[in-house]
């Protein structure tokens, strides 16, 4: 379970908006261009919270673990499927046309890489629609933060 720390900046019913503190590993993550943390200088997330959590509290939030798996499957799976579709389509086309020699080898490779481009574009659009869901794990005492 991944946890992050942040400051509650607003409360709306059972949901609070938390400004997350930056993490050390975010800059080196391969999914950083799709992460909410890289799109804004102070990333925020909507979090379900118990009634005792108020604006200005420091909290620890638990992010949905399946989000990383979903993002990885989308970012790697869709381009891979598009590439393989291009390779197989190019191979099928070269077989139907009876192409021989280097053209019959080059066509599937070129078709695969050409199909990779829309695969990447589609995967980015789908990944940008992923929204992290989180819950407040606990309220953090400000004295504990100051001692660290």
Total domain modules:
2
Number of helices: 4
Distance between the termini: 22 Å
Overall structural class, as computed from helix and strand content, comes to alpha+beta
- CATH homologous superfamily name of the largest domain? Nucleic acid-binding proteins
Choose one word for the global shape: rod-shaped
Strand order of the largest sheet: 1-2-3-5-4
Number of strands: 5
List the uncertain runs.
143-148
* Major sheet size, sense and barrel closure: 5 strands, mixed, barrel
Please give the radius of gyration in angstroms.
23 Å
Protein described:
There is one protein chain. The chain folds into two domains: 2-64 and 132-147, OB fold (Dihydrolipoamide Acetyltransferase, E2P) (Beta Barrel), CATH 2.40.50; 69-126, no CATH class. Helix content is 46%, strand content 24%. It contains four helices and five strands. It has helices at 36-39, 66-97, 102-127, 142-147, and strands at 2-12, 15-20, 44-48, 58-63, 134-140. Strands 1-2-3-5-4 form a five-stranded mixed β-barrel. Helix 2 packs antiparallel against helix 3. It starts with a strand and ends with a helix. 18% of the residues are buried.
